Amino acid sequence: NTRVVRVDKDNPDKTVLQEVGEVIKKGGLAAFPTETVYGLGGDGLNAGSSQKIYAAKGRPSDNPLIIHIADMESLAQITEDVPEKAKKLAEKFWPGPLTMIFKKSDRVPYETTGGLESVAVRMPSHQTALALIRAGGGFIAAPSANTSGRPSPTSAAHVAEDLTGKIEVIVDGGEVGIGLESTIVDFTEEVPVILRPGYINQSMIEEVIGPVRMDRGLLITDEKVKPKAPGMKYRHYAPNAELTIVQGSTEKVVQYINEQCLALQAQGKRTGVIGTDETRKFYQGTVVKSIGTRQDEEGIARHLFGILRAFDEEKADCIFSESFDTPRMGQAIMNRLLKAAGHHIIYL
Ligand code: TXA
Ligand code: MG
């Protein structure tokens, strides 16, 4: 059965994490908080642990895992050729919500990299995550701790919904800070490529290392252009209900969503609306939720996955969401929202 242990996220109990670290060293699995989302951790250098991670998540085993480290010495042990630009980014953003991809060393099993010659590495800034990585042997492979296809977990309760009975331990460190997964930058190509947008955006990266590219698969919704990160090709973050994003002036969006909701409700359907503190009062859906105020884009990012999960509990048949193309994190927020909607967006 799955044990839940609570820790103070900034000052976690060392003996508790030592025990959880032992579980991981012995090949077991433990979910733990990071500053982005909760991770499902196992020993990244143990092929058997990685196989267990895929099984617990129901994730295809060609979708590689990120190895989480706690210091720069560890990076050298699992990679070959770390370019200067990557070292600069590490200096600026590690520990933090940034994942970088390099050629892997022989120590990293193919089970962890989904058969690839490259390995994704991240040094998180969360104190509980760092302490657990150290206690667990230094190399923790961890995807987001959700069932494959569901929204990533931003609280221990979300993890428990998906993984109870499937892993040894859940370390509950409360709510996460950012709420969207790390930015991924691929350094195996001549010009570094952003494979997944996150809290650290393109211009923050370019300020440090100059021009980087956005993976074409992120920009184009053409089915034939596959994103380079294997995980980005799957339908993802998806609530059970059909989700539609509606973009345009507030007035038009409110009018359109209300028309749709009323028509669907007349057919006996339960509708859901994702609005903001500013607009929620205008909507006539069966269930209307606010993702927060438009003034706080970090709040919108932090609440997104939780709100998608909440609509599953409400048993909504159809959900309509406003668009959140905010200045700094808009690219990351819209990347997740569009995937959750299966790219179903209406421009008014
Ligand atoms: O914030 C995060 O990154 C969280 C926390 C737990 O650290 N982890 C996370 O892992 O989001 P996951 O497995 O849910 O997403 C990792 C993504 C997947 O889309 C995967 O395909 C891609 O990274 N990826 C991993 N290794 C790769 C590689 N060698 N080449 C290309 N893409 C890779
Ligand atoms: Mg994930």
Automatic annotation (TrEMBL):
Query: Does Zinc show up as a keyword for this record?
Result: no
Species the sequence originates in: Blautia hansenii (Ruminococcus hansenii)
Q: Where in the cell is it found?
A: Cytoplasm
Q: What does this protein do?
A: Required for the formation of a threonylcarbamoyl group on adenosine at position 37 (t(6)A37) in tRNAs that read codons beginning with adenine.
Specify the domain of life of the species encoding this protein: Bacteria
Q: Does the keyword tRNA processing apply?
A: yes
Every YrdC-like domain range: 14-200
Give the InterPro entries listed for this entry.
DHBP_synth_RibB-like_a/b_dom, Sua5-like_dom, Sua5/YwlC_C, Sua5_C, T(6)A37_SUA5, TC-AMP_synthase_SUA5
Name the reaction it catalyses. L-threonine + hydrogencarbonate + ATP = L-threonylcarbamoyladenylate + diphosphate + H2O
Protein name per its UniProtKB record:
Threonylcarbamoyl-AMP synthase
Keyword terms? ATP-binding, Cytoplasm, Nucleotide-binding, Nucleotidyltransferase, Transferase, tRNA processing
